[in-house]
Amino acid sequence: MKFTKNLNSLSENEFISIFGSVFEKSEWIASDTFKKKPFKNSKDLMDKMINTYSNTSNEKILKIFNLHPKLAIEKRLTNFSSKEQSDAKLNTCTKDELIEFEKLNFDYEKKFNFPFIIAVKGKNKEDILNNFRERINNDYQKEFTEAKTQVKKIALFRLNEILEN
After folding, report:
1. Residues with Cβ < 8 Å from 149, sequence gap 6 or more?
2. Distance of CA 32 to the CA centre of its chain
3. What pLDDT is recorded for position 69?
4. Where are the domains of the chain?
5. What's 113's DSSP letter?
6. pLDDT tier at 1 (50, 70, 90 boundaries)?
7. Which CATH architecture best describes the domain 7-163?
């Protein structure tokens, strides 16, 4: 999508329809960010949106984590997630890869109580599986911090895609 309008001229509904899916199924972040207008430029918007996310409670962060799909095995995806997973070729997994993704997703979520989250843009199936195999061995705090960082990366990729920076 090519974004051509002035950020500050958008109504709240327009703003949320454009930026509401930057954080997986968490439109409230776009709504809170809208209230921080005016935006000097697209970078200012990005900073304010990331700050809204970064400064929220760990309880809300955990809720955001749990809105993310299980990689390679979940079928109901947002448009962004579908494109990202497809670009990483997660839709072309072999039977063995799918079995491993299923096991890793199950074991990871059982251990951490949230799904494995990684910014898949620029990665392939093997990169993602290797990262998964490694990160499942982390302790809770390290993995919570890493997942929080990955959500930020995903949001920045999506914002850049919308704003075409």
Report:
1. none
2. 18
3. 93
4. 7-163
5. S
6. very low
7. Orthogonal Bundle (1.10)
